[in-house]
Amino acid sequence: MLLKRLKQKEIITMSKKESFLYFQMAHLLDAGFTMSNALDSLEKQSPRKLRKKLITVQHYLEKGQFPWEAFKMAGFGKMEVALLRASERSGDLPGCFRQLAEDAERRTQFNQKILSGLAYPMFLLLVSPLLLSLPMMFKDGPGAFATTVFTYYGSLVAGVLALVFAHRFASLSMSYHSILNNLPILGKLRFRMAFYRFYSTASALLSAGILMDETWELSSEASSNPIYSRLMKHVIPRVIAGNSLHEELARLRFLPDVHIQCIKTGEVSGKLPDTMKTLAKMCLEDAQAQMSIIAKLLPAVIYLAVAGKVASEVIGFYQGYFSQLNQF
Question: Residues 52, 119: one domain?
Fold first, then answer.
């Protein structure tokens, strides 16, 4: 339990450090610092993981790379890279870092809700099988108990490793994402988080004056979901050919009607960047509500499973007991 709390604290602290880093970058650039000088100033006060990234950024800047290329080489996210690329063209790097800081702050709050909401259900998921198997030690012996526990936790570890393996290898990645996208509750959560990133990036890029085709390409990549990214990229050629954006999105048949209507209004009013920003906020709020539902449902499911197992053991005991009585 202590390890979980430490891990939770590490994840949240990392997001806060990112937010602090981006705010500081914005302030230093506003004050007239060059990118290189700003990075020098921030390297010393950044945590080890971020410091390594900043040193890598410095290295590629010294080799003559553009800032967005240096941040990409250092392993920063697709959304960060896309916004940096747009801000270099618009000349508003401080504004870009301010937006990244705000996004990191929102992610911090979201991570806090996820980790605090799922900590107890995950604890139950890990501990309940162990407790339920304890009677087996007295009934069938330590060997049967050890075999059952090893099988459960071994299967759990194998499942996690399989997911990591599928996520890392491109040949399996599409199948991996397709399966997760179609899961009843998790799929909706992944959809909302992917389109939160998509709409946030699109809003910033359009506001910076980036053309629609490049905005759509970069925003699709920033969604970090290859299934949705591939579908969204199909829209652009037809939009460039003269079709309306909302009609082409409606043909994809996976975006909610409210999203289509908002985009239609944004097109007609000429305020598509503001519309994208509103949709990003809507997706994030929906994702937070979804996480609250998961955090409430998961303990209930685990309790029902435990109750079912206990009832099965009790029934099995009395069946054996009455069976022995009937033999006399």
Answer: no
Q: Which domain holds residue 52?
A: 2-76
Q: Token pair for residue 130?
A: 């162990």
CA gap 202, 278 in Å, rounded: 11
Task: Select from 94, 107, 78 the least CA-distant residue to 18.
Answer: 107
Structure pTM? 0.71
Q: Do 254 and 115 fall within a single domain? A: yes
| 182 shares its domain with 72 | no
Say how far apart CA 60 and CA 71 lie, in whole Å.
Answer: 9
**What radius of gyration, in Å, describes the C-alpha atoms of the chain?**
25
Q: Cβ(11)–Cβ(111) under 8 Å? A: yes
Query: How high is the mean pLDDT in each 10-residue block of the chain (328 residues)?
Result: 40 64 88 87 81 89 89 85 81 84 78 72 74 70 78 80 66 70 82 90 83 86 85 85 87 89 92 92 86 76 72 67 64
DSSP state for residue 101 in the 8-state scheme: H
Looking at the domain assignment, is residue 94 inside a domain? no
| Structural domain count of the chain | 2
